[in-house]
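Bench notes, afternoon.
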Amino acid sequence: MSAHTLTVAGVDVDTRHWIGGERVTSAETFTDHSPIDGTVLGEIARGTATEASAAVAAARAAFPGWAATPPAERARILHAVADGVEKRIEDLAIVETHDNGALLRSHRRGVMPRVAHNFRFFADWLLNLGHDDFATRGHTNHVSWDPAGPCVLITPWNAPLMLASWKIAPALAAGDTVILKPAEWSPLTASLLADIAAEAGLPAGVLNIVQGYGAEAGSALVSHPDVRRISFTGSVPTAKTIAAAAAANLVPASFELGGKSPLLVFADADLDLAVDLAVEQYDNAGQVCLAATRILVEETVADEFTRRFTEKASALRQGDPRDEATDVGPNIHPRQLEKIDGFVQRALTAGARAVIGGHRGEGQFYAPTLLTDVAQDSEIVQEEVFGPVLTLQTFADEDEAVRLANDTRFGLAATVATGDKARAERVTAQLVAGTVWVNCFFVRDLQAPFGGSRQSGVGREGGTWSFDFYCDLKNTVTAPRGWRDHG
């Protein structure tokens, strides 16, 4: 076994970067811990501006060949990547569970199969991409999508491989080359993806992976003058820094950022369904950007809703994410746990009441928490916690429900529980959100646009919207005259 290989529950993972089709070491490393029990998984190559520049150079060198590859061949290779993911679902699930603490059963049954689906979807969408030609005063207009060039993709730690594949798959399908910087707290499955892509026949330099710790590698990537697109999922402050770097080179950037999404529960809703939707917000230990962390309940049913919610949420099993019976796993990192507890303790000091939870568990676990008696302008209502912490407020009527729902700087998603279709249509029309779910949650079709409003993001991805971003759109106008007869 190589000195640069670590083994996670029997699965070997290379700890080096993947640049230009080769493994590349760094002078320094950073330590990767498992959130399950804090054990050291291994030492990971720590990228600097040197590795970032090498990755951009590799992507730039590979771009002309990949851009000229016929769409059908690009699609074939992406399907081969999907095949490779499917063959290694168990390995990917095991490694990611150890690396970021999410439930193993979810990785096996939902997350990793979705990674394969992401590659297949954009491969197929590529082959059906197109606009019909249209005429202008006898002239023909033809719209085409030209590959843009090297793309920097920076992904978060809460669903590392799935969120990376949401970006990588459309970028590669579009004919772009990619430099991926995965999150430092969950870097391992990106390395496995490099192996899978190479085995699938993806040419050297088309996909590059730079592991990083802190801002050095990321800053060098987003400020590089040869980069043509930047896609980032993460926090608002980091996005502002990236936006400034992108602006210096006039590079288009797509941001999917924080959320403080509401769940509106009306008195005419199926209360059991509404409670199920609310408890579902503890998924992935609350580390979901789309989570409806602000529960807004019509005051006439608030007591009954709270009773049913407390009963159901209290039955959740928190523990080892490798156990099939576990419902809530650990939070990703001690620093994140401190952040979560800080939010909760400040809220309790300010007068909030913990209906359930409100405290740490052992290790890196935080008890599923519901806080009431919170003011609309309080920190706990206005700021993203990114942990298993929900707040509950009441409203008197539709107007107040919409006002409270929209009263944050975010606008990523919203969920509405109601038995009145007309009300659902009225309310959803007024909500500021990139996605609104009615009587459901987290139903995500890749054909649909995805992104946030306000400080929850810039731009939309999914379906044709992804190709609009990852390509330079060209309109060719042809006159009906001027042709020579070569017959």
